[in-house]
Amino acid sequence: MAFSSSTTPTVAYFSCFNTFNEISSPLFKPPKLPLFWPWEKVKMGPLSASPMGFGTWAWGNQFLWGYQESMDSQLQQTFNLAVENGINLFDTADSYGTGRLNGKSEKLLGKFISEIPGQKQVQNNIVIATKFAAYPWRLTPGQFVNACRASLARLQIEQIGIGQLHWSTANYAPPQELALWNGLVAMYEKGLVRAVGVSNYGPNQLVKIHDYLTARGVPLCSAQVQFSLLSMGENQLEIKNICDSLGIRLISYSPLGLGMLTGKYTPSKLPRGPRALLFRQILPGLKPLLRSLKEIAERRGKTIPQVAINWCICKGTIPIPGVKSVKQVEENLGALGWRLSSDELLELEYAALESPQRMIQNIFQTR
């Protein structure tokens, strides 16, 4: 195929695909375009991550998410589909998994990574962000290093992408906080993690730990916080501003509000288990927001969850919606490859402010 001198290389490149689509032969399949291009990956310290990651809180959690070991093959298909579509960021924690299944999420991730079909390069490209619980018996940096080594063993990898503190103890055990911070420093200096991050840190504690780590020569790579159209209060926006000013990447957990922003539930149609109590309290006050999400989704040819996740991406965060089925991965992948307009962002944020209910914040969230 020849191009005229007036056609730019970029236009010519995409013109090829337009031509391909016009070919009617059933034997010819046009090449599949990626959901995002390599230059659209997000930098997090030394790491390069997909614009959206996936959370694995449900993997091993029987109490809230109804996990059963018979689901493992489905979870592996879920993981493989995500990787095949360019997702390389997976968030987990050493406390994920209930009762005897504690640590199950990390174990499953380790198994799935080791069994990825194809090149070793795909495995090496995966970024695991795991969180270490601030259990009351973890009182020294050495105990956090031991926790990190235990996670490495469950994950079957030599180095963790991002080692994160799961929560701060500033609200209830301030003396333990310094041990947490020094534990991160030790993990980093020993080469057990490529980067470090925090979770559930409020603006004040975030600045403090950033300054402390910087003085020790350890860059703070990321901060996880509940951030969504259901959770965009002053605290979240202040954290986002601090992250932007200090070069910290904000990771949005619960971007779908535990499922309340999927459009699948109503006050008369609630999920099973403990979530029903929360949904019954909050859903009735979300009509303006859910209506706006639905209207934009219909105009865009998208689904409500895809619009809600895309909002997080447009705000400069990395959302990590939880997944436990192939269907959820397929739907969430539809949040990539496009962006809401500035008018649509304002429409959604206005509708969120008009909705009287807000998401309940994590009890460990600090100021």
What features would you describe in this structure?
This protein is an alpha/beta fold and 367 residues long. It has one domain (41-354): Alpha-Beta Barrel (TIM Barrel). It has 14 helices and 10 strands. The chain has helices spanning 9-22, 62-65, 72-84, 104-114, 120-125, 141-155, 174-189, 203-215, 234-246, 275-282, 287-300, 304-314, 326-333, 342-354; strands at 42-44, 47-49, 54-55, 89-93, 127-132, 160-165, 193-199, 220-226, 249-253, 318-319. The strands form 2 sheets. It has an 8-stranded parallel sheet, with helices on one face. Helix 9 links the parallel strand 8 and strand 9. Helix 3 (72-84) runs parallel beside helix 13, helix 6 crosses helix 7 and helix 11 packs across helix 12. The N and C termini lie far apart (61 Å). Residues 1-26 have low confidence and may be disordered. One of its GO terms (cellular component) is cytoplasm. Residues 51-348 form the NADP-dependent oxidoreductase domain. One of its GO terms (molecular function) is oxidoreductase activity. This is NADP-dependent oxidoreductase domain-containing protein. It comes from Citrus sinensis (Sweet orange).
List the helices and strands and how they pair.
Elements: H1 9-22, E1 42-44, E2 47-49, E3 54-55, H2 62-65, H3 72-84, E4 89-93, H4 104-114, H5 120-125, E5 127-132, H6 141-155, E6 160-165, H7 174-189, E7 193-199, H8 203-215, E8 220-226, H9 234-246, E9 249-253, H10 275-282, H11 287-300, H12 304-314, E10 318-319, H13 326-333, H14 342-354
Parallel strand pairs: 3-4, 4-5, 5-6, 6-7, 7-8, 8-9, 9-10
Antiparallel strand pairs: 1-2
Helix pairs in contact: 3-13, 6-7, 8-9, 11-12, 11-14
